[in-house]
Write a structure and sequence with these properties.
Order of helices and strands: HHEEEHEEEHEEEEHE
Keywords: Lipoprotein, Signal
Protein name: Lipoprotein
Organism: Streptomyces coerulescens
Number of helices: 5
Number of strands: 11
Helix content: 25-40%
Distance between the termini: 18 Å
Strand content: 25-35%
Length: about 230
């Protein structure tokens, strides 16, 4: 269901801050518990398996669904979708200026605005598949995606490719994001399509690269089932 702007911004800010804390606290333990070879092998196997390792938990995007969008797609079983209200309704007097600035930074990236987040936590992972939408215009999917990546601090080594699904032609990118604060680099992925109602970006992050790779089957499921809404 739709959330009030103030609570949505506070929640997004808290998620961002919590993810940073969890990453910093768990990094050393994870390094001791896993060898890079075994982690890489299992992650590559999961990526190659595509969406065969995950079941659909339903479709979102249509009117009346958790997130009305210009497109529809399947979300993985046990993942939970929630729309993000970026309007100005409701009181924000209790929000601090810093929290509002952080929330605004999280709600807008390049030419698109956060519209929906699909939480992996109920399925046992730490991360989100986020959907971003923009205003109709002349920009193609690749241009939208390049602006999206350029607006992410620490992004590098972006590799673009094209894909087709459900009659849509889109652009996909795999790239790295480095946090100067945490001195850590992780993998991320995103795709973009354009519709008559504007561009749509699906982005998969994750607390770290291992979490990201574990969630890739859900991302692949969304990409494969993407349709115009």
């Amino acid at each position: 269901m739709l959330v009030r702007a103030g609570s949505a911004r506070r929640r997004l800010a808290q998620v961002a801050l919590l993810a940073g804390v969890l990453t910093g606290c768990s990094g050393a333990a994870e390094d001791d518990a896993r060898t890079s070879a075994s982690a890489s092998a299992s992650a590559d196997a999961a990526a190659e398996a595509g969406d065969t390792a995950v079941k659909s938990g339903g479709t979102i995007g249509a009117a009346g669904s958790a997130c009305p969008l210009p497109v529809t797609f399947d979300i993985a079983e046990d993942w939970e979708a929630e729309a993000i209200d970026t309007g100005t309704g409701g009181s924000e007097e209790s929000d601090s200026e810093l929290a509002q600035e952080l929330a605004d930074a999280l709600l807008h990236q390049g030419p698109v605005t956060a519209a929906c987040e699909v939480d992996a936590k109920p399925a046992g992972n730490i991360g989100f598949l986020r959907v971003w939408t923009g205003e109709p215009g002349d920009g193609d999917a690749r241009a939208v995606l390049r602006e999206f990546v350029a607006a992410e601090k620490g992004a590098s080594k972006a590799k673009y490719s094209t894909f087709e699904a459900g009659g849509l032609s889109g652009t996909e990118v795999k790239y790295l994001v480095t946090s100067e604060l945490l001195e850590e680099t992780k993998e991320e992925a995103a795709l973009a399509v354009t519709t008559k109602r504007g561009p749509v970006v699906l982005h998969l992050g994750g607390m770290d690269t291992d979490e990201h790779r574990a969630m890739l089957p859900a991302y692949e499921l969304a990409k494969r089932t993407l349709r115009v809404g």
